[in-house]
Amino acid sequence: MSGPECCSNPPTLNPSGGAGHVDKLAGLDTYFIGSPDSKLAVVLVSDVFGISFFLSVTSHSLMLIPFYFIAGKVRFHANYRVGFGWGWIAFGYEAPNLRKLADKVAADGYYVVVPDLLDGEPLNLENPNRTIPAWLKDHGPDKGFEATKPIIEALKNKGVSAIGAVGFCWGAKVVVELAKSRLIQAAVLLHPTFVTLDDIKGVDIPISILGAEIDNASPPELVKQFEQVLTAKSEVDSFVKIFPKVSHGWSMRYDPEDAETVKAAEEAHQDLLNWFAKHLK
Measured between alpha carbons, how far is 44 from 50 in angstroms, rounded to an integer? Predict the structure, then answer.
C-alpha cells in the first residue's frame, strides 16, 4: 500500500486550470494540450491514489490533517488530535502543477493528454456501502493500466507515431505496465509506488526512473536495485537518478514559494524532457 508520503502536500485543484482544455478520450475526461497534428504524444498519469485530508475543528484552531491507509484502515499522522471531520480524495488530473507540466511538455512539440483514470469516482469515506478495499478493487493501478490501453490506441489511430508516458507515484505502476507491454516507446517513472523489481525486469524499452532521497514508498535502496537490473540489460537504454534532500512527491506537490523545491522539481521536469527528446524525436 501507499504510505503517508503519497498523501502529503496535496494540490489545490482547479478543473479549469492550464492553457489546454478538457474533453473525452476513449470515454474518459482528459486534459489536452499541444497540437493535435503532432506525430509525437506524451501521456501523463497522475498521482491520484491516496490524496486525502481530514478537516479538524477544535476550540482554538482549524487545520487540515493528513491521513493515509494501511491495511484498509485510516491512520492519522502523529501529534494531532481530531475533533470531527470529513474526508475527500482528489482528482489528480486537475492538479495545477500537473497541468503546468503538461503545458511545458506540449511546448516542446508534443501532443499531451492527462486522463482521469478514476473515471469520475473518487473515494468517499462517508459511504458505508463502499469500503476502501472495494474501492481499490475498482481503482487499483491494474485498472488504470486497462483504462489507458484504449487511450494509447486512440492516439495511434489519429496518426501518432511515437508515444511516451510519465507516471507519478500511483501512476508509475500504470506506466511500467505500459512499458512491459510495449504499448509505448519511452517511459519515465517519478517517485514510483507499487513498482517491483520484477516489473523492472520485464521492461525492454527506454526507461528513466527519478527517485527521492526521502521516500518510504520507493526508498533509494530500491531505486538503486532498479538501476542494477537495468544496467545489466545492455540492450535497454535507462537513466536512474535519486534527487537529494527531497521527499516522495516532490516533482508534483512542491511549494511554489520554496525556491529549492521548485528547483528540484524543474530539474526532474527537464530530465524527462531530455529523455523524450532522445527517444521520441
Answer: 18
